[in-house]
Amino acid sequence: METERPQIEIVGEQIRGGGTETGHMRILVVEDDKKIASFVIKGLKQSGFAVDHAANGEDGLILATTTPYDAAVVDIMLPKLDGLGLVQELRNRRINLPVLILSARASVDDRIKGLQSGGDDYLVKPFAFSELLARVQALIRRASRETEPTTLTVGELTVNLITREVRRGNQKIDLQSREFSLLEYLMRNAGKVVSKALILEHVWDYSFDPQTNVVDVVVCRLRNKIDRDFGKKMIHTLRGVGYALKAD
Predict the structure, then answer these.
(1) Does the N-terminal peptide bond of residue 126 adopt cis geometry, omega within 30 degrees of 0?
(2) How confident is the model over 208-231, as pLDDT tens digits?
(3) Fewest Cβ atoms closer than 10 Å to its Cβ: which of 14, 15, 109, 180?
(4) What count of other Cβ atoms lies within 10 Å of the Cβ of residue 125?
(5) Looking at residue 220, which CATH number applies to its domain?
(6) Is residue 230 part of a domain?
(7) For residue 17, is pLDDT > 70?
(8) Which domain holds residue 178?
(9) Is pLDDT larger for residue 66 or for residue 204?
């Protein structure tokens, strides 16, 4: 029998704000309360994450077992499969996805039960988004065990991910938000050819639409700012394949 596909909300644009630790990371939010889900998703988007949302435990489990995520935010009280059952099933399948459990239950026993079920952290409702974000970032840092760089450098091009300052040599370059996100992605993949589909997925968080020219438009704007006033071109087009940023 064919497995029913979960009702998944793929949350649209990534907004590159002050979330310097997130890179191009994807978070799973499993929450049936529409108001809380909207609050959490909006905050994560504004912090630079791509977000998938499931409104029940069964759909959340399907997503968590078929899609690579950097972390998950899981409510305890969920329809079809509760949050603790979801986390326990992940651990039974040896999926080590970092999980932050959300619950209105604040007792010590409830917290212990949540952590013993396989949760990595436990946050009691109501909560400030800033605390949820800090906990998610801490889970990701512990899981990756590596320090996210604060500066990206390719040849004479430098990007400060904290101040969002871009320089080529001694010249400062002002970029719009989407141009900055595109440049960051190209620099993280310096020397590699990245397709339009990958750029759409990581910079816009869109599924690939072969009819759209949004990538070409922003690449053109970025190239005008990065390459136009310099002798050596850094952004290269491979027709029919994609784009690459190279130091030489």
Answers:
(1) yes
(2) 666 778 888 999 999 999 998 888
(3) 109
(4) 14
(5) 1.10.10.10
(6) yes
(7) no
(8) 151-245
(9) 66
Phi, psi values for residue 139, rounded to 5°:
-60, -45
91 and 199 in a common domain: no
Residue that has been written with the tokens 């190279």 in this structure: 246
Q: What is the pTM of this model?
A: 0.52
CA dist 122 to 21, 55, 101, 106, 244, Å? 21, 19, 5, 9, 42
Does residue 186 sit in the same domain as residue 201?
yes
Residue 198: phi, psi to the nearest 5? -65, -40
- Give domain status of residue 211, yes or no: yes
Token output for 186: 């190209």
Decide which of 115, 144, 173 is a domain's last residue: 144
Q: CA–CA separation, 231 vs 84, rounded Å?
A: 59
SS3 per residue for the chain: CCCCCCCEEECCCCCCCCCCCCCCCEEEEECCCHHHHHHHHHHHHHCCCEEEEECCHHHHHHHHHHCCCCEEEEECCCCCCCHHHHHHHHHHCCCCCCEEEEECCCCHHHHHHHHHCCCCEEEECCCCHHHHHHHHHHHHHHHHCCCCCCEEEECCEEEECCCCCEEECCEEECCCHHHHHHHHHHHHCCCCCECHHHHHHHHHCCCCCCCCCHHHHHHHHHHHHHCCCCCCCCEEEECCCEEEECCC
Sequence length of the chain is 248
- Domain annotation covers residue 66: yes
pLDDT digits over 190-210, tens only? 888 988 888 887 888 766 666
